[in-house]
Amino acid sequence: MAASRAVVRGHFGELLQGRVGPQGQVALVTLPCPGLTCTVTRRPGPARLFQPTGRVLTLAEFRAFLRALGLPADGRHVLHLSMPVGAGAGASTAARVAIARAAGVTDPIAIARACLATEGATDPLMFPNPGRLLWASRQGQVLAVLPRLPRFEVLGGFLGPGKRTDPRDTRFPDVTDLVADWQAGPPTLDRLARLASTSAARCLALRGPIGDPTAALALRLGAMGWMTAHTGSARGLIFAPGGIPHGAADGLRRAGFSRITQVAGGG
To answer: Which of 32, 86, 144, 159 could form a disulfide with 134 if both were Cys (CB 3.0 to 4.6 A apart)?
Structure first.
C-alpha cells in the first residue's frame, strides 16, 4: 500500500435548515467553505488514527467507518483539521470523507451511506457541489438539485461553545415555504439573503440561544442578511461581492466572534 493523501472542504453553517413539513424530514442547504478543511494522510501499517489538531473521531468510530465502506482495518492515518469541532463546520463528515478518499473510495453515494451508518446525521461534503443540494441529513439523501445561486460573500466567525449534532434531534422549525421559494427559480441575492435570514431567525427562536447578536450586527454593518449553523456556533453576515465594509471583522470580534472567516459563495 502506497502512501496517499486527501483534502476535504468543510462548510460554514447552513443557508437553510429545518423540517420539510411539520413532521417531515430535516433538510438543509449547506454553505461550502474552502478555508475550512480536513486533511488525511494514509500510510502502510495497522489501522491507527492520529489526530494532532484535535479529536473528531474515536478509534471505534474510525474502525466502524472502515467496515461500513467494506475496507480492511489497516492503514496509519494522520488527520489534520483547520476547523473547530462541533461548530457547524462539518468536521465529523469531512474527516470521514477524507479517510474514504485517502483509501481510494470516491463514490459519493457509498461514502454517504457509510457516513450515515456511523454518525447518524451527515453533511453532503462527499458530493462535488454540496451547496447545490437540498440534503436530508438524517437519511443521507439528495432531495433536489437546486438552482445556481448568485455570487455573494459571507463574513462571520464562531460564537459561543460548540455543540456536536445529535442525530436524534429533529426539533427544527418547518421550512416548507422557504424550500418552495428557493426552488421556484434562481434566487436573486436579495431573495437568498431573505431566505437565509428567515431560516436562521426561526431556528434561533425555537432552539436558542436567547440574545444572539447576529441579526443586530447584520443591520448595524449594512449586510443584506445573515445565516447560522443551525446546530453549532458558526454565524455569518451576507454581503454582495466586494461589499464587506472596512472594520466589519473588528465589529464581529468586539461582539465575541472568534476565528473570523470569509467565504465566497454562489456563482
So the answer is: 144
